[in-house]
């Protein structure tokens, strides 16, 4: 869809990336680190400054205690952290349970190691998790429960009750929980992010993944990390060092600065995005689409059935040429498109005038 957007000079509300430079202190810190000569290989586990900043961040926001020398590993984005964890923990014939819709990497990485992804669907309009369905998906081959909250593409946030249900299943079946929390700071309307590792009995079986990309609007930096018990983090590191080995020394130093920004700066990032979520949601509703409530993330999901459309895949393929806007069909985040044939994901992480222009273009529909 991004290629089609470029081809037709369309506004790209498909791929989720912001169009502003990110917090000035963070960008300045990257430039300063480069000029200080911090441009050579970092340790595979990550430079000490960012490991200490990640641990301090987990303590400040969630009360989680971590040892920066053994319980954190810095990766080339959350992507590498997630794929390294799956390669480390899952083998041929194993099963990974994931919430459906799922971020496309989850299925690709599972297939790569010969495992299968077992979807447990959350559905519009409220995207509630049926914990009994999750429990029923567990088999003797299940190795990992892969969570994503706040959730891309739906903007759902797992509640404490849902997390407690998942934790009970994981403990009962001795499963590892791999949790993708890259949108941990981008929640709206007073919603609260609860890391599942903070629930009783979960710290020892949870690998938590996050990234600087979404929080600081620097998706091209690809600085992510995994935190968790030393035995599991050692396994992630053991794989990751044969993938990228290490990456982004000056960017790691800059992200350390970002993670130490005061609380109100994190709140501002979410507040700005909430206003954009409202702009896009209201605008799409004005056009006659059904828009589901997004509690978090860069995205809102809309239903195009009220426009007389029947297939979001065909709709999104044609949209850049038709009106000059790109979006993503939610079908691509599903193992089976049944029930979501007319859902489309739009990114709201763009400048207000860009969102306004996109909505104006969509009027031609
Ligand atoms: C963007 C995204 C990622 C990838 O993060 P990177 O740090 O860019 O690798 C992983 N998971 C989800 C749900 C995402 O939206």
Automatic annotation (TrEMBL):
Q: Which GO molecular function, any one, fits this protein according to its record? A: transaminase activity
SUPFAM superfamilies tied to this protein: PLP-dependent transferases
Q: Which UniProt keywords apply?
A: Aminotransferase, Pyridoxal phosphate, Transferase
Spell out where the chain crosses the membrane. none
Q: Which residues form the Aminotransferase class I/classII large domain?
A: 9-354
Instruction: Note the CDD domains from the entry.
Output: AAT_like (cd00609)
Its required cofactor(s), as named, are: pyridoxal 5'-phosphate
What InterPro entries does the record point to? Aminotransferase_I/II_large, Kynurenine-oxoglutarate_AT, PyrdxlP-dep_Trfase, PyrdxlP-dep_Trfase_major, PyrdxlP-dep_Trfase_small
Lineage, top-rank taxon, reads: Bacteria
- Its name, as the record gives it, is Aminotransferase class I/II-fold pyridoxal phosphate-dependent enzyme
Upper classification of the organism: Bacteria, Bacillati, Actinomycetota, Actinomycetes, Pseudonocardiales
């Amino acid at each position: 869809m991004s290629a089609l957007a470029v081809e037709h000079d369309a506004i790209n509300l498909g791929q989720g990336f912001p169009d502003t430079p990110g917090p000035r202190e963070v960008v300045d810190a990257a430039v300063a680190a480069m000029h200080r000569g911090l441009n050579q290989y970092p340790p595979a586990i990550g430079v000490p400054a960012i490991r200490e900043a990640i641990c301090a961040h987990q303590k400040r926001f969630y009360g989680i205690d971590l040892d920066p020398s053994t319980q954190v590993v810095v990766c080339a984005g959350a992507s590498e952290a997630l794929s390294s964890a799956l390669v480390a923990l899952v083998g041929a014939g194993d099963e990974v349970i994931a919430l459906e819709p799922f971020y496309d990497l989850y299925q690709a990485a599972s297939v790569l190691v010969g495992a299968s992804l077992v979807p447990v669907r959350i559905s519009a309009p409220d995207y509630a998790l049926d914990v009994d369905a999750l429990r029923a998906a567990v088999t003797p081959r299940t190795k990992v429960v892969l969570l994503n909250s706040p959730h891309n593409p739906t903007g759902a946030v797992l509640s404490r009750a849902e997390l407690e249900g998942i934790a009970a299943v994981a403990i009962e079946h001795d499963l590892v929980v791999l949790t993708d929390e890259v949108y941990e700071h981008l929640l709206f309307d007073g919603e609260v992010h609860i890391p599942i590792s903070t629930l009783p009995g979960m710290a020892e079986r949870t690998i938590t993944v996050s990234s600087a990309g979404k929080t600081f609007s620097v998706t091209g930096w690809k600085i992510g990390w995994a935190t968790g018990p030393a035995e599991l983090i050692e396994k992630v590191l053991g794989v990751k060092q044969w993938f990228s080995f290490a990456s982004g020394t000056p960017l790691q130093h800059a992200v350390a600065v970002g993670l130490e920004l005061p609380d109100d700066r994190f709140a501002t990032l979410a507040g700005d995005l909430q206003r954009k979520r409202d702009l896009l949601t209201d605008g799409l509703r004005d056009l006659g689409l059904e828009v589901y409530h997004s509690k978090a993330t860069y995205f809102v999901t809309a239903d195009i059935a009220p426009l007389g459309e029947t297939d979001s895949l065909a709709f999104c393929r044609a949209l850049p040429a038709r009106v000059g806007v790109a979006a993503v069909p939610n079908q691509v985040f599903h193992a089976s498109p049944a029930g979501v044939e007319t859902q489309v994901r739009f990114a709201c992480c763009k400048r207000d005038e860009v969102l306004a222009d996109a909505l104006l273009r969509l009027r031609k529909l």
